[in-house]
Write a structure and sequence with these properties.
Order of helices and strands: EEEHEEHEHHHEHEHEEEEH
Bound molecules: adenosine-5'-diphosphate, magnesium ion
Number of domains: 1
Strand content: 25-35%
CATH topology: Rossmann fold
Oligomer: single chain
CATH architecture: 3-Layer(aba) Sandwich
Number of helices: 8
Number of strands: 12
Strand order of the largest sheet: 6-7-8-3-9-10
Distance between the termini: 50 Å
Length: about 250
């Protein structure tokens, strides 16, 4: 039995390069809880994307394990891995990767049409619900190039949620967005975490990373910091004490 919902054990990734072996992840041990909003932060080249590719199964570790809900994902063969990923993970990238010939509605619905977990009626209802959740109901029938970058990313998040995966993983989802659009995207992840999704969001931006309940900092392929925010009380998060002072001071 593993201790965490996502359990990372002695994870190491070494790349062979023309100039020799390069250790991108040194030795990572982490346990992530269910429903946690985790941000992974670090400078460019610190190993964030490599780390995420180990969690999504997009790439295989050199050694070590990733257990998700007690399933050793790297012990799965390729076809089983793809199946597992389809059910368990919603993945979001920096460049939204929406299909340009489809409108947002069709983009969000597509994974449901492929997986066939829902009836046609459910697929249609769910597509609109997801577009509403990310604030795009009125843009449903526009093509990606007719909406802003932030709206495209919101649609990509809705698409990642199509088959209701318990885990969302995002690699620099705000990397291509301005500050305001980035905040809107972060708010969606916060909302999803409140609904019980487990979120792993990668960013190089300290300020955005601070939105996570837990922030893990990578440097040279090692965890150099692992910070947890206080638990929610009465359904409300007990934020840093300075926000309390701020409220009292202003009013
Ligand atoms: P980040 O996402 O934090 O910017 P990456 O995980 O993409 O960092 O990369 C970490 C390090 O591993 C970098 O030095 C990068 O050059 C190296 N790296 C990543 N992928 C490969 C690869 N396929 N082959 C060789 N080196 C790689
Ligand atoms: Mg990266």
């Amino acid at each position: 039995m593993s201790k965490g919902f996502i359990e990372i054990q002695n994870l190491q990734k070494v790349f062979s390069t023309p100039t020799g072996q390069f250790v991108a992840l040194q030795d990572i041990d982490l346990q992530l809880d269910k429903g946690q909003f985790v941000t992974v932060v670090g400078k460019s080249g610190s190993g964030k994307s490599t780390f995420m590719n180990m969690l999504t199964g997009i790439d295989r570790p050199t050694s070590g394990k990733v257990l998700v809900n007690d399933i050793d994902i790297h012990a799965l063969e390729e076809s089983k891995m793809a199946e597992w990923r389809g059910i368990n993970l919603g993945i979001v990238f920096q460049f939204y990767q929406l299909l340009p010939v489809m409108n947002l509605y069709e983009n969000v619905k597509l994974p449901m049409q492929i997986a066939q977990r829902y009836s046609l009626k459910e697929q249609n209802e769910r597509t609109m619900e997801l577009l509403e959740l990310v604030g795009l109901a009125e843009y449903a029938f526009k093509r990606p190039n007719r909406v802003s970058g932030g709206q495209q990313q919101s649609a990509a998040i809705a698409r990642a949620l199509a088959n209701d995966p318990p885990i969302m993983m995002a690699d620099e989802p705000t990397g291509n967005l301005g500050a305001e659009e980035a905040s809107a995207v972060i708010r969606i992840f916060e909302k999803l975490a409140q609904q019980g999704k487990t979120i792993v969001m990668i960013t190089h931006d300290d300020e955005l990373a601070a939105h996570g309940e837990r922030t893990i900092r990578l440097k040279d392929g090692l965890v150099v910091e692992d910070r947890m925010k206080p638990k929610k009380r009465n359904g409300k998060r007990n934020w840093f004490s300075f926000s309390k002072r701020d409220q009292n001071g202003k009013k």
